[in-house]
Amino acid sequence: MNEEKVLIVEGGSDRKRLQRIVAEPVEIICTNGTVSPYRLEELLEAYEERELYVFLDADESGEKIRHLFKREFHSAIHLYTEKVYKEVETTPFKVLATILTEAGFKVHPQFLL
């Protein structure tokens, strides 16, 4: 696979949920919670030439990681779930599909209904 886009999420449940929706080759990487600047750089070193998309939870942990991304990876594109859902994992499929579509991802059409 020749994925050009890399989607960064917090956990495995987020990854599984988004894998069901996305209809194109996309590498989905988990931060597995809190990360340091060093760990983040180490995690993403192999993806420097790709488009990075950050899709984290709308909670304190997600915001801490997002802040780190904004500081360390200026070109990363940030996607936001609605605060009412708090987590990517609990956001309805249709809402996730809409967010991804608006960011330029191809999604399976059934998730937009």
Automatic annotation (TrEMBL):
One Pfam family, short name: Toprim
Enzyme Commission designation: 3.1.26.8
InterPro entries: TOPRIM_dom (IPR006171)
UniProtKB keywords: Hydrolase
MF-aspect GO terms: ribonuclease M5 activity
Enzyme class: hydrolase
Protein's name according to its UniProt entry: Ribonuclease M5
Organism field: Filibacter tadaridae
